Amino acid sequence: MKNFVFNNGIAMPIIGYGTFKIEDMQAYQCVLDALEVGYRRIDTAAFYANEKGIGKALANSGMTRGQIFLTSKLWTDANTAQRVNAAVDKMLDSLKTDYLDLLLIHWPTPANLIVWQAMEKLVKAGKVLSIGVSNFKEHHLAELLLYCNIPPVLNQIELHPLFQQKELRQFCVDHNIIAEAWSPLMRGDALALRELQAIGNKYNKSAAQVILRYLIENNISIIPKTLSKARMQENINIFDFSLSDKDKLAIAALDSKQRQYRDPDSHGF
Ligand code: NDP
Fold first, then answer.
1. Ligand 1 pocket, residue 209 CB under 6 Å
2. Which of 94, 111, 117, 161 has the least CB density, counted as fewest CB within 10 Å?
3. How many angstroms is it from 182 CA to the middle of ligand 1?
4. Residue 71, ligand 1, Cβ within 6 A
5. Residue 207 falls within a domain, yes or no?
6. Beta carbons of 50 and 74 less than 8 angstroms apart
7. What is the domain count for the chain?
8. 268 within a domain of the structure (yes/no)
9. What is the pLDDT of residues 199-251, one digit of tens each?
C-alpha cells in the first residue's frame, strides 16, 4: 500500500482502519479481520475504550509490531503533563506495545500547549514516534506552531463530501501537515447521495469507493470504519481506478460547507 511521508520523514500507510464505536470484544475480531484483508494501520483513542481488544488482536495477529502503524488519541482529561504520561502508559499497556507510531490530541482544549510539551517529551523518550492533533482549526494550529519545538505531523478532522474543509486543508498543506478525514463516509449517510452512486456506476465502483478514492486523490489520509470484513475489503480496493477531472469537480461541488458533527470551538468538553 502507498504511504504518506510526514514532515519528520516517517512514513504512514495511506489507509487506516477506524475503530470508533467498536467495543473491546468486537474490536479484537475486527482488527484481526482488517489485518487479514490488508490494512496495516489502526486508528483508536483512549475515548473509544477498545485498546485492550486491539492490543490482543495485534499480539495474536502473527505480525511483528514494525509491520503495523498504530495511532491513538489523548482524551481531554489528559490536561497536565502528569496526566498525559499516565494516559500514554495506560495506552501502551492496553495495546501491549512499548511505543505508539502516532499520538494525537483528540480535541483542542485550553491546555493544548501544556499537553503538547508533554507529548514532545514522550517523543524524546521513544514512547511515541510522531505527534499530531485532531479537530484543530486554523487558529488552534497557528498557536501551536508558534510555540512548539516539534511541529504536528497530522490533523485528523471531520471531512467528507458534504464538508470538505478546503481552507483548513490548504493551511495544512502550507505547514506540511497531513490532513486526515474522520467519518469520511459520513458514517454511511454519504453513500445515499445519488451523484456519488452515478459516478460509481461509471467505474463499476461503490459510492464508498468513489469517496475514498476522491479523498486520497486530494492527498487526504482516510480511516474508514466498518464491522464487515467484505466492506473492509471494498474500502481498501480503490487503487485500480482514478477519477476523471470532471467527476472530481462534481464531487467538489457537493461541499455544503456545513459541519455534520461537533464544532471544535463549541464541543463542550
Ligand atoms: P465512517 O465515515 O468511516 O462510516 C462508518 C459507517 O459507514 C459504519 O456505520 C459502516 O457500517 C458504514 N460503512 C463503512 N464502509 C461501508 C461501505 N463500503 N458500504 C456501506 N457502508 C459502509 O465513520 P466513523 O465515524 O467511524 O469515522 C471513521 C473513523 O474516524 C472512526 O472509526 C475513528 O477512528 C475516526 N473518528 C475520529 C474522530 C475524531 O474526533 N478524531 C471523530 C469520529 C471518527 P458497517 O459497520 O455496518 O459496515
1. no
2. 117
3. 8
4. no
5. yes
6. no
7. 1
8. no
9. 999 999 999 999 999 999 999 999 999 999 999 999 999 999 999 999 999 99
Reading phi first (left if > 0) and then psi (alpha if -120 to 50, else beta), residue 183 is in: left
3-class DSSP state of 214: helix
Q: Is the CB of 186 under 6 A from ligand 1?
A: yes
- Kindly give the distance from the C-alpha atom of residue 125 to the centroid of ligand 1, in angstroms, as a whole number: 33
Report, as residue numbers or ranges, the catalytic residues.
48
In this model, does residue 198 exceed pLDDT 70? Answer: yes
Among protein residues, the one with the nearest Cα to ligand 1's atom 30 is 182
The grid coordinates listed for 38 are: 490488508
Structure-block grid coordinates of residue 5: 511521508
Residue 188 Cβ contacting ligand 1 at under 6 Å: yes
- Structural domain including 138 reads 3-257
Residue 266: per-residue pLDDT: 87
Query: Of ligand 1's atoms, which has the minimum distance to the CA of residue 209?
Result: 18
Cβ of residue 43 lying under 6 Å from some atom of ligand 1 = yes
For residues 77-89, give the mean pLDDT: 98
268: pLDDT strictly greater than 70 = no
- State how far the Cα of 154 lies from the Cα of 159, in Å rounded to an integer: 14
Q: Supply the residue whose CA is at minimum distance from atom 26 of ligand 1.
A: 225
Q: Is residue 263 part of a domain?
A: no
The larger pLDDT score, comparing residue 58 to residue 1, is at 58
Position with higher pLDDT, 131 vs 269: 131
